[in-house]
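PROTEIN DESIGN WORKSHEET
SECTION A - STRUCTURE
LENGTH: 386
TOKENS:
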């Protein structure tokens, strides 16, 4: 018969027929006999975690960390912003397909992106606040650009006047209808003294006034209708527009010549910048003036006015009150000459000079010389005998 366990649990005996005793149950909760309690230092070795189990724990933890790292890295690449195409500072060329990016050291990079602005119409109006910008274009060649690119020309650009600097040499077509930068070593054209930005074309607010050496002012329309003005000096040593005071020209004022040349006919007396085209020569107050030259173009208000007189600095027309002359007698005034009063050849002293050819002289005058009006209102020189 099997032994009856508490609460009616039946426990079978082994095949040997020997019944289980309370002492034979490993964890017999029904044993009435109190079991001794093992001390911690007497636990069997088998109760400590095994080395294999620790290994699996660490491998599992490492797998979790790798998975988390992968998820974070993947999330960064998914969420990070893409680089902006045609960003500020990039360089481009304007082609049929739209702005095309090139490295800024590439000779095809004709413009640099100064700013990216919200789309407004006309597109160029978005860039008017940038003084160095000469183009405002959409980022794509369509009627629906996403952004306006404000472009300034680079030094690779030889035809945009906004790329020019003081000291550059240019070839000019017409009255500045087009310009092209070229090496000064091979240029006989024009040298840029400075550039100016004006509000409109034609320029009416005194082009190149701040550049007193300027002999020409060329203007081209730029961004939004405003004008870029090139204040320039002519390089050609024979061009009258490159003249300095004291230089000499041929008779028809077409070129500069040496003052001791047989072709020399007139001497440059004054060079002035006017800002409107005069209705008459501007030499009335210039001593000895007998000719007038004027250069201007329709795109700017700079007028270069040159007063000229005889090459011979001893011409009688240069005489002043208190000076002396050698009279040439009756006949053309050119037969008389100005001389130092200490010269024994001096025959007369100038006692009066006024701007009219009226011949009205003091009673003490022994003679007078008159010059008809031309670039002046005329001249009368009154002489007393010495």
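SECTION B - SEQUENCE
RESIDUE ASSIGNMENT:
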């Amino acid at each position: 018969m099997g032994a009856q366990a508490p609460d009616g649990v039946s426990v079978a005996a082994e095949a040997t027929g020997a019944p289980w005793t309370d002492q034979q149950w490993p964890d017999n909760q029904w044993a009435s006999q109190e079991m001794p309690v093992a001390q911690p230092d007497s636990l069997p070795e088998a109760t400590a975690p095994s080395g294999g189990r620790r290994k699996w724990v660490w491998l599992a933890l490492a797998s979790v960390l790798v998975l988390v790292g992968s998820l974070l890295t993947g999330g960064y690449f998914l969420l990070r912003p893409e680089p902006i195409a045609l960003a500020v500072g990039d360089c481009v060329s304007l082609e049929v397909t739209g702005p095309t990016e090139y490295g800024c050291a590439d000779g095809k990079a004709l413009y640099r992106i100064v700013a990216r602005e919200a789309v407004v119409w006309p597109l160029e109006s978005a860039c008017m606040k940038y003084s160095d910008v000469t183009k405002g274009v959409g980022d794509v060649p369509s009627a629906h650009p996403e952004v306006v690119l404000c472009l300034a020309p680079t030094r690779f650009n030889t035809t945009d006047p906004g790329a020019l600097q003081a000291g550059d040499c240019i070839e000019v077509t017409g009255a500045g209808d087009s310009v092209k930068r070229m090496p000064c070593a091979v240029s006989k054209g024009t040298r840029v003294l400075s550039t100016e930005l004006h509000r409109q074309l034609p320029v009416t607010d005194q082009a190149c006034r701040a550049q007193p050496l300027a002999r020409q002012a060329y203007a081209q329309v730029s961004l939004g209708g405003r004008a870029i003005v090139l204040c320039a000096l002519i390089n050609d040593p024979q061009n009258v527009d490159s003249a300095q005071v004291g230089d000499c020209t041929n008779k028809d004022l077409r070129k500069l010549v040496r003052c001791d040349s047989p072709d020399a006919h007139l001497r440059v007396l004054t060079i002035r910048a006017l800002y409107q085209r005069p209705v008459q020569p501007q030499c009335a107050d210039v001593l000895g003036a007998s000719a007038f030259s004027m250069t201007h173009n329709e795109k700017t208000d700079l007028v270069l006015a040159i007063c000229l007189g005889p090459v011979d600095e001893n011409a009688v027309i240069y005489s002043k009150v208190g000076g002396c002359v050698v009279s040439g007698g009756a006949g053309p005034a050119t037969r008389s000459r100005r001389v130092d009063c200490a010269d024994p050849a001096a025959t007369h002293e100038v006692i009066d000079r006024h701007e009219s050819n009226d011949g009205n002289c003091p009673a003490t005058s022994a003679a007078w010389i008159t010059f008809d009006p031309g670039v002046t209102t005329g001249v009368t020189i009154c002489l007393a005998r010495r």
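SECTION C - NOTES
Residues 105 and 111 are 11 Å apart (CA to CA).
The chain is about 10% helix and 30% strand.
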